[in-house]
Amino acid sequence: MTDGIFPLIIETGIGVDLTGDDATKAAIRAVEDTIRRVLFPRLQELLPGKDRANMRVEATIAVPGADRVDIDAVRARFPYGQVTVTTVEGGHRQPNGLRDDSGHEGVILIAVAVISVGW
Fold first, then answer.
1. Which end of the chain is more exposed for a tag (fewer CB within 10 A), N or C?
2. φ and ψ at 82, to 5 degrees?
3. Where does the pLDDT of residue 3 fall: very low under 50, low under 70, confident under 90, or very high at 90 and above?
4. Exposed/middle/buried for 31, CB within 10 Å: 0-12, 13-18, 19+?
5. What single string gives the DSSP state of each residue in the chain?
6. Could you report the per-residue pLDDT of 44-86, keeping only the tens digit for each?
């Protein structure tokens, strides 16, 4: 086993907030989309000390309004590891055809996550 392997695995996902224009909600959903579709059954055996706490996780999330994302709320969605979350301006914002009581047009907010795992 070689120390300092990063990344070993890269996975992607998307998250959408259909009506709330909530960058944090879209970012969390992108992370959840990514982690709920993957299983690393033997990864723990490769980690230093065979401890998931030694797993390194880096999440980069592209979303409109990246500066509005609650990084701690996103980080809390990861069950293990030393997690770093970075947000960048990106993703997509699209009118959703709805208007609120004051006449403001609603939007669909789409976030894209790239998550790297290793040690």
1. N
2. -95, 105
3. low
4. buried
5. --SS---SEEEEEEEEESSS--HHHHHHHHHHHHHTT---TTHHHHSGGG-GGG-EEEEEEE-TTGGG--HHHHHTT--SSEEEEEEES-SEEEEEEEE-TT-PEEEEEEEEEEEEEE-
6. 898 999 999 999 999 999 999 999 999 999 999 999 999 999 9
Tokens of 54: 């030694």
**Domains of the chain, earliest start first:** 9-118 (3.30.1330.20)
Contact indicator for 111, 23 with CB cutoff of 8 Å: yes
Count of C-beta atoms within a 10 Å radius of residue 9: 13
Task: Count CB-CB contacts under 10 A for residue 42.
Answer: 6
Residues in the chain: 119
